[in-house]
Amino acid sequence: ATTTTKLMTFAEFEQLPNTPEGFPFELRHGELVKLVFPKMKHSRVQWQLRRLLERAAGQAGIVEKEVGFRPVPEHEYRIADVAFISKGRWDTAEDYLFGAPEIVIEVLSPSNTATEMLDKEKLCLENGCQEFWIVDPTLYLVKVSTPDGRAITYSAGQEIPLFFGGRLAVDSIFTPAEG
């Protein structure tokens, strides 16, 4: 016998009650996925990326951690570890950000799988994301992928060119914050 499972719609996802533990959920291809809270090293990298990108972006847009977005109208709700959203999109978004943020950054955690990261990268780049970054805090690497199929991995001593202007030193992402 076969069992058919029904994909969860976004409307059903939206009606879920908040859990007492406060764990966030994503809707991935119609399946509910409970996320785990990041460990301190992960949170520090997120904070540092947000801080650095805010300075570089200036008035071009908003940089935020743990940004929820709807890359497609149905069966998907994702959360970016760090996201850059242009000022115009930020100002006009109401309940949800539709499409992917212009930059989606994922900081690798032990719970991430390669398939999960490739799936999210593809989904984001096909739905408005201009750059998808995978940040590896263990190897001190940043892979930047773009919708045209290019992917460049940056390491210590290198700088990442930012499409809104300026550059971001890879070393600065993994260096403890200064004042």
Structure description:
- There is one protein chain.
- This protein is of the alpha+beta class and 179 residues long.
- 26% of the residues lie in helices and 29% in strands.
- It has five helices and ten strands; from the N terminus they run αββαββαβαβββββα.
- It has helices at 10-14, 40-57, 87-92, 114-125, 170-174; strands spanning 25-28, 31-34, 61-69, 78-86, 103-107, 131-136, 141-145, 151-154, 159-161, 167-169.
- The strands form three sheets. A six-stranded mixed sheet has the order 3-4-5-6-7-8, sandwiched between helices.
- β5, α4 and β6 form a beta-alpha-beta unit.
Offer a few descriptive terms.
179 residues, alpha+beta, 5 helices, 10 strands
List the helices and strands and how they pair.
Blueprint: H1 10-14, E1 25-28, E2 31-34, H2 40-57, E3 61-69, E4 78-86, H3 87-92, E5 103-107, H4 114-125, E6 131-136, E7 141-145, E8 151-154, E9 159-161, E10 167-169, H5 170-174
Parallel strand pairs: 5-6
Antiparallel strand pairs: 1-2, 3-4, 4-5, 6-7, 7-8, 9-10
Summarize the structure.
With 179 residues, this protein is of the alpha+beta class. Helices cover 26% and strands 29% of the residues. The strands form three sheets. Strands 3-4-5-6-7-8 form a six-stranded mixed β-sheet, with helices on both faces.
